[in-house]
Structures are given as structure tokens and as C-alpha cells.
Amino acid sequence: MSAPLLATGAAFRLNGASVVALAPGALWWPARALLAIADLHLEKGSEFAARGRLLPPYDSDETLRLVATLVEELGPARVICLGDSFHDRKASDRLPRAISERIAGLASGRDWIWIAGNHDPAPPESWGGRVAAEFAEGPLRFRHEAALEARPAGEISGHYHPKAGISWRGRRVVGRCFVEDGRRLVLPAFGAYAGGLDARDAAIAGLFPDGYRVHILGRQKLHSFPASAL
Questions:
Q1: pTM metric for this prediction
Q2: 97, 119, 175, 199: least surrounded by Cβ within 10 Å?
Q3: Domains of the chain
Q4: pLDDT at residue 134 tops 60
Q5: CA–CA separation, 67 and 99 (whole Å)
Q6: Which residues, other chains included, contact 180 with Cβ-Cβ below 8 Å and sequence gap of 6+?
């Protein structure tokens, strides 16, 4: 494991498991060599271009470059993509062949799990990995969207693309963030063009009725604050 990468993260306990929120926006569970990433939204740029909103067409390449860096540095035995890995149901058809081959290479030799999200098509079989509605490992359960009808202990999800801002030491810190209360966790969106929803919004804050902490992604490290500081 990369000491610098882990040193810039935020370690905390989630339903008894020791996990690390990493500055690039992924979650690392050292005891299980498990890496979790949410909301890649591959090919969002090309979908926007098809509708006349031109963006640089490099979002998939940049997103996967960061995924590859994490895989190379951490050497996970298992990688879980928490849904909305694709921006739309035809996104996998638009991916350049070189990027498709890169995904297959990342999945090779490890247990790669594609959690089904509301945007996702089934990934091509040539990419490897397996598709699941959710996945449980020890005290943690991985799914795309947080359960609204209960507060399941150990739940890890994505979907909401949380972000937060705070005035701190004379400057404003704003960015994507992890949101957790020691019982459940919502990951930030990992995709280069993914937007964000304020963590104070009722859709997110309502998942944590007893309060929560945010871990805001900074340029070099995470910044952790209680919800009351936002």
C-alpha cells in the first residue's frame, strides 16, 4: 500500500470496520483489501455532446486513469463499483476500444463487482467482473442507493453525489465529500464530470438523523468536519 496515499486520507470506523476515505474519492478497507468507488458516470461527455452541450471528450479516460492509479498503488483483491458506472444505457457502446481494454485489464486477476445503478446497462462480458444488486462483506453492505425505509448498519452507498463547503482558516473549502455517522456512509461521485448535491440537502441529511461528519476532498488531502460546522 502507498503510505502517502493513505496518509492523506481520513480513517474512521464504520459499523466496527476500520476504513479509510481516500483523497481521490474512493474508500479503502485494508483488512479485506477492498476498494469501493461510486458513480463513475463513464461517457457523460459524449452523451452531453450528442445533445449539443460540448465538453472535452476526455472524462472517461481521466476517470479510469485515477482508478488505475488506485489499483496500482493499493493492489486490491476486490473492487466494488457502486452503481452508475455509466452515464446512460448506451455509454458502453460509445467507449473507445482502448478504454474498454483498460477496464478489462483492471478487472483481470481480482474480484471486480459492478453494483447495478439506475443508469447502468450490463457491462460487456469481455470486461470481466460480475454484476450484483448489492454485496455484503463482514459487517459492511454495499449498494447503489441508501435504503430510505431503514438505517441498515454498515451500509455503504453512492447515488447522491454529496458535496460540502466550509469557511476554514480564512478560506472557503468546497468539494465533493464522504458523509458518514459511523453507522452508514455515502461516497462522493468519482466521475470526472459528475455533479454534486449539498450534503445539507434533506435527501442526504435525512439519512443521518443523529448528525454526521463530512470528509471533503481537497487538492492534497481530505478535510473532515461535523455537519454543524457546514
A1: 0.88
A2: 97
A3: 3-229 (3.60.21)
A4: yes
A5: 12
A6: 12, 14, 21, 186, 212, 213, 215
